[in-house]
Specification:
Blueprint: H1 2-9, E1 13-15, H2 18-24, E2 31-35, H3 38-49, E3 56-58, H4 59-64, H5 67-76, H6 78-107, H7 109-113
Parallel strand pairs: 1-2, 2-3
Length: about 120
């Protein structure tokens, strides 16, 4: 929980990992995702894109210095990104709640006794 809270309350997050991005983006934290391979590119692009962010760079971009412009842009747009992320998260909360309720119902002991 401490790592999730740190991601949610950061002023800016730089990560090559999926879960910190998943915690930060809905909280409106500007995030620079560093993709180390195609799989990570897809995960980070999706995690950030769902909340209006597009700051995913390759490891080569980081090593060459090209990522610094993307990072600076995310920092400049931080107020807009925060507002948009929080707005999108609030708009989707009902959908998430219903989804988790369906999962909890499907996994409940009573569900296992129902005929299929």
């Amino acid at each position: 929980m401490a790592a999730a809270d740190a991601a949610r309350t950061a002023d800016l997050l730089v990560t090559s990992r999926y879960h910190p991005a998943v915690f930060a983006a809905p909280a409106g934290v500007p995030t620079l995702g560093i993709a180390v391979d195609d799989y990570t590119t897809v995960k980070l692009t999706g995690a950030l894109g769902n909340f209006g962010q597009d700051s995913v760079v390759s490891l080569d971009d980081v090593l060459s210095g090209a990522a610094s412009d993307v990072l600076a842009d995310a920092w400049r747009r931080r107020d807009d990104l925060r507002g948009r992320g929080l707005q999108l998260a609030a708009a989707r909360k009902g959908d998430w709640d219903r989804w988790f309720d369906r999962i909890a119902e499907a996994l409940s002991p009573a569900a296992s006794r129902r005929p299929h």
